[in-house]
Design a protein that fits this description.
- The protein is of the alpha/beta class.
- The protein has a domain at about 5-80: ATPase, nucleotide binding domain (Nucleotidyltransferase, domain 5), CATH 3.30.420.40.
- It has 3 helices and 8 strands.
- The chain has helices spanning about 40-55, 70-75, 85-95; strands at about 5-10, 15-20, 25-35, 60, 65, 80, 100-105, 110.
Length: about 110
């Protein structure tokens, strides 16, 4: 039986992250790795892992974010979303109604109320 999965890819200049959620929002796969100046190569490796690891499942859509994410999304025909918007949606999904968000990333920390 095929299961609907929701993968997300964050490709930055220094690191890349991928996560896959099941239909209930449970994290079933995640990986974090330095890009070592090769963000496109790492993104391709992550996508190959998805294809190899989840052969019997359907992906709802693949969304990409990050400083190199826009290029990756354009090259691979994926949807791109701004990092701040992605963080905000994730915070509301995993902790509804909190009203505040602190992002501690590789660059400048951000605080949203």
């Amino acid at each position: 039986m095929k299961i609907l999965l929701y993968p997300g890819l964050d490709v930055g200049s220094g690191t890349a992250k991928i996560v896959v959620l099941d239909a209930n929002g449970k994290v079933i796969h995640e990986r974090y790795t330095p890009t070592q100046g090769q963000p496109l190569k790492v993104a391709a490796q992550f996508l190959q892992e998805l294809q190899n690891s989840f052969t019997d499942n359907n992906f709802a859509s693949l969304v990409c974010t990050g400083s190199a994410g826009k290029l990756v999304a354009r090259l691979l025909g994926m949807k791109f979303i701004n990092e701040v918007i992605a963080h905000t949606w994730a915070a509301e999904f995993f902790s509804p109604g909190q009203g505040q968000l602190l992002i501690l990333g590789e660059k400048t920390p951000s605080w949203f109320c």
